[in-house]
């Protein structure tokens, strides 16, 4: 039963995420393709200029981490696999989303998004492992 709820939650969350990535936050199609293939370039830009537009800094750095935490929690509930397999599945999905964003000109293909989103995935996975450990301790006690 827990697995069915996790599947439902991840489908709902993925739908919400697709909306945010393509239409939310007043996104509109841009006139040109935008991309960044230099690791930490966008991240360092936001860190260096954080005081100019705080909301943009928060959305881009913290938001790109936090928004992917649910995948790290829900994927292991849906399928019991090793962390590496979950992460590869996550990266494939992320690559598809980033590529569609780039091709539709509704965002940019940014390697820093992969870094931040992956951090969110691992944070979520850590939360999942802590929940599993906590529940097994309670059962033993």
From TrEMBL:
Keywords: Membrane, Transmembrane, Transmembrane helix. Residues 11-130 form the VanZ-like domain. It comes from Cohnella lubricantis. The chain crosses the membrane at residues 6-26, 57-79, 86-103, 115-132. Signal peptide: none annotated. This is VanZ family protein. It comes from the Bacteria.
């Amino acid at each position: 039963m827990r697995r069915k709820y996790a599947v439902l939650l991840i489908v709902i969350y993925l739908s919400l995420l697709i909306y945010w990535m393509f239409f939310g936050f007043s996104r509109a199609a841009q006139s040109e393709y935008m991309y960044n293939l230099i690791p930490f370039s966008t991240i360092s830009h936001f860190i260096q200029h954080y005081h100019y537009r705080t909301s943009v800094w928060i959305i881009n750095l913290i938001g790109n981490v936090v928004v992917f935490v649910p995948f790290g929690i829900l994927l292991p509930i849906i399928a019991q696999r090793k962390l590496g397999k979950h992460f590869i599945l996550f990266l494939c999905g992320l690559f598809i989303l980033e590529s569609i964003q780039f091709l539709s000109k509704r965002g940019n293909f940014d390697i820093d998004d992969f870094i931040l989103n992956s951090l969110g995935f691992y944070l979520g996975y850590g939360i999942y492992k802590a929940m599993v450990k906590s529940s097994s301790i309670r059962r033993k006690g």
